[in-house]
Write a structure and sequence with these properties.
about 150 residues, Rossmann fold, about 15% strand, CheY-like_superfamily, Sig_transdc_resp-reg_receiver, TCS_response_regulator, phosphoprotein
């Protein structure tokens, strides 16, 4: 099992409040992985493709895990997921949808496109803290990761 503590998490989230709460939950869970944040779907694609200011993989390395909101400006999370799953070098990066949507159509479409997991953001902080601990326990400590290309 590889040590993932140096590998980052890409949080794709447009809500400043949600970003703050997720960062707090990661800190309380003692998750040491760096969390990089992009705030819309186009920025997520740019980051993952290594373009438009994200070309330096030392500064902007590919993540070990993507936490993806669905309701994003410019390009929604399902469009980002669809784009990612078409990219040969990076399509294996695990993607966990972390969203407020419980709509069956969103859940079904996310799984049809190839999401690794679909989680609904809790509205209360204690529940978010528990969810983040579960994400850490499964995705960062237990799950076996595929090989991912080192360049976008």
């Amino acid at each position: 099992m590889m040590n993932l503590s140096e590998y980052g998490i890409l949080l794709v989230e447009d809500s400043s409040t949600d970003i703050l709460f997720i960062q707090r939950a990661f800190k309380q869970a003692n998750i040491v992985n760096p969390v990089r944040i992009v705030r819309d779907g186009d920025e997520a694609v740019d980051y993952l493709a290594g373009q438009n200011g994200y070309g330096d993989r030392n500064k902007y390395p590919l993540p070990a895990l993507i936490l993806l909101d669905l309701k994003l400006p410019r390009r929604d999370g399902l469009e980002v997921l669809g784009w990612l799953k078409q990219q040969p070098g990076i399509k294996r990066i695990p993607v966990v949808v972390l969203t407020s949507s419980r709509e069956d159509t969103d859940i079904d479409r996310a799984y049809d496109i190839g999401v690794s997991s679909y989680l609904v953001k809790p509205v209360e902080l204690p529940a978010l803290n528990k969810l983040v601990k579960r994400i850490d326990a499964y995705w960062l400590q237990t799950n076996e990761f595929p090989n991912i290309a080192t360049a976008g």
